[in-house]
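Data availability (excerpt). The following record was deposited with the supplementary files.
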Amino acid sequence: MGPTSSGKSELAFKSAEILNGEIVNCDSVQMYRLIEIGSAKPAPQQRRQIPHHLYDLVDPDQYFSAGRYMEEARKVCREIADRARIPFVVGGTGLYLRALLEGMFKGPGRSQDIRERLEKIGRRKGFDFLYRFLLKKDPQAAGRIQPGDRVRIIRSLEVYLLTGRPISQLQQQREPLANFSILKIGLDLPRPDLYDRIDRRVSEMFSRGLLKEVQELLDKDYSPDCKGFEALGYRHAFAALRGELSQEEAIKRTQIDTRRYAKRQLTWFRREEGVHWIPGPGEDFSALQQLLKLVGERRLGDSDL
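Predicted structure:
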């Protein structure tokens, strides 16, 4: 785990290559087909060399829930383990990781009507109004959600309005992942280094043809509002294609958004218990050495049980 641009995929690939492993995606954007340049998926050569799972599962206009991720990821991890190989779960979507490890409650499905009503209220009165409402109805859930986390605020209120019960109460019914020895490894770069890597990655996205990719998706009749286009950079790419932003402005805004997203990721992962934090990017040989040492220690500890 770790923030975007920290080198997670590269470290996972090198580790899986040495330790007879397979890669399991834990990045919500990399689930989408056709969302290529902005998603930083592993290179095709790497995906041919080592089995990669849960990439390119759905089209850009389809919804992929954390509950479905839990089911798919647990199934894949068990299949990998049955082959006497190690599942390397890699990605920066904290909600997916939590679903995999801790389980998801069996709550109600999505209600488009309720979501649209909440969105309208949020736009009219501000999402801080919705957050205060959630704080009143479910203070425990609100305490775990950032006031600006629109998606989780709306989902928590949606569950409350559909069931009459707080989501925090329903979440106590979750079933944690069983029969695995779990080792959590996080990448922790100095903030200036991370932000420099983010800025360079965003510039490369546009130089590699992000605007062209977005135009091709529009030509295939995908709406700018579809789920897959929530990937960082795509909204600003749309604006550039419409002439509302220059490419330079789109790059700068995407860099700012991505740095903010990385900060939120770190805040989320800091709340994870038992993470072994490796200082520096995943491409560094020292990161690989530390990971192999941790795996060796874990295996030795497991053999003593």
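Summary of structural features: The chain has a mean pLDDT of 93.
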